[in-house]
Amino acid sequence: MMTKIKEILKKSKFLIEWYDRLKYSAGFIRERIIFIYDRLKEKLFPESEINKILFIRTAGLGDIIRLQVIVDKVKEKYPEAKISYFTSKPMVPLLKLYPTIDKIYTEEEINPLLEEKFDLVISTQYSDDSGLLKGLLQKIKAKEIRGTRLTPNENRVLYWRTWMEKWARIVNVPYRLKDAEKVYLPLSEELIAKTPAVFQKEGLEPQKQYIGICLGGEDALKGNKWCRNFSIKFLSELIEFLIPMYSVILTGKSSDREEREKKELFALKDKFPELIFLIDKLTLEELVVIIDRCSCYISSDTGPMHLALALKVPLIALFGHITGFEYISPKKKGDGWIIINSLKECVPCQGRIKDYCFVKKRALCMEELPLQEIKEAVKFFMG
Hints:
By secondary structure, the chain is of the alpha/beta class. The protein has 16 helices and 13 strands. It is 43% helix and 13% strand. The strands form three sheets. Strands 10-9-8-11-12-13 form a six-stranded parallel beta sheet, sandwiched between helices. Strands 3-2-1-5-7 form a five-stranded parallel beta sheet. A two-stranded parallel ribbon has the order 4-6. It is globular, with a radius of gyration of 22 Å.
């Protein structure tokens, strides 16, 4: 029924916009009622002793980094509790760096995890409806599960100002907007000790200044509504500007590109012989070390951008649409710059990407990033 109504409303841009606003407002009010109810319940009926807590997050490098601020707040609330984390194997080296996490489980350790009994499970993987997580949440032994249970009737839509605020409200810990700027990544002595070997392996000089560029992440046109893949044309123009003055490192994964684009991407090695081309070459730990030693890092809204923020590396963060700007800090202050594309007519693009983008198989907003502003930002950081 609702689908038919929406199809009728789509014929009028004015009506569909009001339909979206009303739907958002209803969800917004619903979430706040649930939040107030949870807080009242907590005050009237204090929680029983909580000694064992499990966080669940299997994907999203940037989200895991940002979520750690909430993990720390939960640890402050329950200082005697042991915190475990269920994640995917590639994320383990990152999570091992955080001292508030006592034990990490992966998909290879489901049985030991199911033998545990938790007082509180916090599921934050709301964007993943995989059978693995559904089965895990149905079988896990816990007094209480908060967050998303990943079933059609319980998959709550969250309507808060920032991604971190959503989870702070769900676990009932205090939150301020400035907390979004408190992302951090402590480097262990073991990882720091590996730095010389990583630099030697990639032919880098420890005392030299480097500008890092992340070529982007999975794009909207592969099913993800976040536009964040730089076009090869944009990358080429940016590198051409930087190469005469700076040593440039290019990082990222070619697997996010179509075959045609992969050929153009790898052709950059021949076009710019001085370019330090590290596409597909780095482990997560090596990427952390490389970004940490950059004097400036340029990235779209993807995992390495959050690594740079957490490592306090001067960052030029490029967004193709305004949605990311609204929900991610910093906002042109502190150690980070955020540059928003001037393209406005299809912003925000969530669910309404223009026909151009599908026909061209490129996000138009990522084609028109303001190169001159980026040049000015580089000069600001590099002097």
